[in-house]
Amino acid sequence: MRAYDHPGTSLLTDNLPGLSPRVEQLRSGALDSEGEFHQWYSLWAESLAATEGEPLTIRRGKAFAHLLEQMDLVLPSGALIVGRHPKTVLDEAEADRTRSAWHDLANPPDASELHYQEEGLFRASVILLHIAPNTREILEHGLGGLCRKIRSSLETAEDGGDFLRGALICAEAAQRFIGRYAELAEREAAEESHPQREAELREIAENCRRIASDPPDSFWAGLQLVWFIYLLVNLEAGASIGQSGPGCLDRWLIDHYHRDVEEGRLTPARALELLECLFVEMNASLPRDGILPLAIGGLGADGEGAENELTSLCLRAVAELRLLHPSLALRVHRRMPPELLRAALLSIGSGNSYPALFNDEVCVPSLRRSGVSEEDSLEWVHSICTELTAVGKTYAWIAAPYLNLAKCLELALNHGRCMLTDRQLGPDLGDLTTYSDFEELYAAYLDQVSHVMGEGVAAAGRNKQQAKERTPYPFLACLTADCIERGRDYTDGGARYQPDYVQGIGLSTVADSLAAMRRFMFDGGEIPPEKLLAAMKSDFVGSEALRQRLLNRAPKFGNDDDYADEIYVRLVEDLYREVNGRTDGVGGVCFPGFMTWESHNLLGKGTGASADGRRARAALSDSVGAVQGMDRLGLTALLRSVTKADFVPSVGGVTFNVKAAPDLFQNEGMLGRLEAALRAYFDAGGFQVQVNVLSRDVLAAARDQPELHRNLIVRVGGFSAYFVELDRGIQQEIIARTMHQ
Amino acid sequence: MRIWITDIQRFSLHDGPGIRTTVFFQGCPLRCLWCHNPECLAAGPKLRYTESRCMGCGSCVTLCEHSCHPMTESGHVLDRSRCQACGRCAAECPTGALGLIGEQRTPEEIIEIVARDRPFYDASGGGVTLSGGEPLAQVRGARALLRLAQARGIHTAVETCGYAEWRRIAPLLDLVDLWLYDVKHLDPGVHQEFTGVPNRRIIANLERLLAAGAAVILRIPLIPGHNDGDDFFTLLSQWLAKHDSIGEVHLMPYNRLARSKYAGLGLPYPLGDAESLPSTLLAARRAALERTGRIVRVGG
Ligand code: SF4
Ligand code: SF4
Fold first, then answer.
1. Whether residue B138 sits in one domain with residue B108
2. Which ipTM did the prediction report?
């Protein structure tokens, strides 16, 4: 059954040629490239050394400009999209020297001051970017338009002159950088013997010449501009690029695409090849641990779907290339052509693990609820795991902080003291033996959450203050509404939206722990509280039977069992209540989320044994999912459990991993069932789902013989990685997570 | 009214169309050598013991009034000879090594669980499947459950061996949307040998169902050395040629996963060392049936 006929979806199945030899060659070149991004450090430091005494924003602008003037250019043979972060090879000692010379001059926010994760209370690190730039505006007005805007702001600026001057330095440097690529392409064209390639190089040069100041006049040039802006925004942030997205490619470039196709300048096959060239560039310029989120499709202003031919082509390019970047997300909604979801599942089923599926009918309202305007809420990106941000308009503070809910419960059970170190970390409200009923215990837990959150948000505020003082971002400010208009830096109140995401970590660990205590202590008194507390404090040494009972006989979230699920829902709502209304003192407003990244492992290491039977220092539950391996009744029960909570307020992100056995993809009938399960999940208010296709055997084999499984890509908490590169703990966890049929 | 069941399995993908919930009834008049649900053969509770999960805590030792849990030098062992399946030990076993399978639930209780996955049935064209064991062995309970499902608009399927008096089947005709009808062999002698009963009544009931216009999918458990030979498939093709209203046939190839279930129930495994069906043979059988114009699915 079709929601409606959509011209773009035929491109999902049309018989276009597979990867062209050109793309194949570029792809393997990108994968094999050696070296690291050392040049960035030496050039940046060189400039800082020459600008001592000038205002910081000017110094950073000049460093950016110097980098763009001096950086090696790379134009691989056959490339259609140019601009690459150059890699060089240095010996270790030399590389260290380069980095520390930069570090001394740049004085970046000090990571060692900025982690508060001893004893697993929370993590509040400095994580910048996590946005997508406002390239839409550059596509409309060109970099020339941007420079004019900055100049006119400068004319009327009362204060903010330094900032705007810094911004102008950056914007003009960006223009010249693109010009350098135009020159390079021209030089190469002049030497090229093959006429077809010569023509390509001339067009590349022409594209660069134009977009250095004007809006692009073709799909190709538009794609090129999107890539340059992305690259430059990232280069301003640091040597290790890739903690941000390029924006809404399919929406922004569809008019260019249509015009070119109508005028006979572009075929769908060529557009696909261009997208593939772009994606290859992403992989050449990003390190393995970078992430580049790309969200496609979704709702448009008219309430209809905004998906188009480019949505289909992006899906197809990602499926064909099978590379780490981009981290593709499909924005699903009820009126989306069903072919797109099917194509997404086929891509996932081929072992690709992309795209992640987001429910636009939850995500858009989620942004609206966080104060984003109706228009702005339609262009969002998961930046970079599952946190939602309005594209081009947001200064998001992502770990504000990662708050360990399981630790808060630990404190409530033990006089506010850490069970591992016995240090006093929270208020003394009693211990497990002093609470007369479940409600008292629960209230004590909430008090600890409130206390820890106060500390965590304050720590995040201090980090943000440091970022503001030490690292203004004049170029990113050019690409973020309304910095130029306000004459204020990105880190200094210029951005239209400034959310802080307070992430609750270990949700199901807490739900299951509370459920076990309620069942075994408060309902019937089967387990004496002294005994349970002592067992937890000794990490269940000598109490294995008790631990087994907690693991096997207590109610567990994820099985559509209201006993545990109601506690889970209550925890979610109380986290919202706790977060609401908090601010960081540096212009940011706090919003809740459950995005976990790797925090469930890191914070778990500082957390004592819990009443759900979890051993001390073991990982906590991941985002909103069930405790690892505890969802035993299959996919539908798990989906029902998780949709009992309302995740619309979780604009900070929800990651929901589902592992599907390969046979769910093996034929039409099975695919239809999987698709139906996910649709029902979304209809019930599911926020996001990440489907992984795995068999335990394959994973175990990959763990034991990594050299044979280097191609295996998995997603953990919303990011992808090569399985064999993960540490053994995470590998074990992925293997342990229940497989659904 | 209560029904003896062993399990209500959600997200079932192989027991009819769409996403389904399968209710496993206890009790079966057949004794197929390859039965993969031995816990469903007779109504009533059974003690399951998974040795590998036992941690040797000893709590079962004192709980059992019939001394079924001696502790030996090598740890806990289960002596089933005096076991009454009272379930006391299972209720306290911390690891889940011991479990009691088989319980009585009312149709109302069952439908409440089934109805939880309603959105998934609606999205996928699924519903509830009564399986087992043999649902017709508790036909009053089956009828009550089917009625409740029908009243809620949930698609119903019954998986049956077909061995029952027609007067038990007839009242279900209006309540069952789809029959998943097992046919093990068409030769009466061979059938008797491997299932313990002759097949006359089974085939007669099947033909009456078809005559009554019921929607039927044939399900053929394909057992190496028992019904995977040319003789059965020749008979089957001939029979299908006369019964056009069968549009779909499922081949359920034998696998050895049930072996551990027998061990857990302390039962001998009747099929001994049978190997899984060679994939080439499976493909050949499938192709042969497809030539009769039927949709053929492997594994349901
Ligand atoms: S089920 Fe009852 S009789 Fe059988 S072993 Fe357990 S306690 Fe003993
Ligand atoms: S109660 Fe369970 S775990 Fe303990 S000895 Fe008996 S069978 Fe083993």
1. yes
2. 0.96
